[in-house]
Amino acid sequence: MTNSTSSPTQAKHPASPLFILVVEDNAINLRLITAALTRAGHHVDMATDGSAAIDKFMQNNYDVILMDIMMPVMDGIAATKEIRKIELSRGVPDDQHVKIIAITANAFEDDREKFFSAGMDYYMNKPVEIEELIKILNA
């Protein structure tokens, strides 16, 4: 008898894979999220701080950016603000901007307001629940 159940990280491959930038300074979190998204059928690029994320954003067209908030060099809020400025200078309409999802251990009410004011679209608490992330990506 075969077992037909799948683990939470064995999500169905999407009809249209996304190109996702994961911005995370913790190497273990970066590897775990990247591996789960790759297994789910998405294409993943990585950056370890906000400054590197901006550089990658300038060179690539991402569908989604998973943005850690607390990072060295440049934090996720500053990086998000800069990405939104770049999109504005490129004439990208608001309804077509890259989806930015904050990933953070700080999810107090005033923190959430900062995320949305900076231009983030969603936020998730750490540790990232892969099933929840896949649902957000598929929305």
Report on the architecture of this protein.
This protein is an alpha/beta fold and 139 residues long. The protein has one domain (19-138): Response regulator (Rossmann fold), CATH 3.40.50. The chain has helices at residues 27-39, 50-59, 76-89, 109-118, 130-138; strands spanning 19-23, 43-47, 64-68, 99-104, 122-125. A five-stranded parallel beta sheet has the order 2-1-3-4-5, sandwiched between helices. β4, α4 and β5 form a beta-alpha-beta unit. It is globular.
Give a quick set of tags describing it:
single chain, 139 residues, alpha/beta, Rossmann fold, 5 helices, 5 strands, 18% strand, globular, disordered N terminus
Break the fold down into its secondary structure elements and pairings.
Layout: E1 19-23, H1 27-39, E2 43-47, H2 50-59, E3 64-68, H3 76-89, E4 99-104, H4 109-118, E5 122-125, H5 130-138
Parallel strand pairs: 1-2, 1-3, 3-4, 4-5
Helix pairs in contact: 2-3
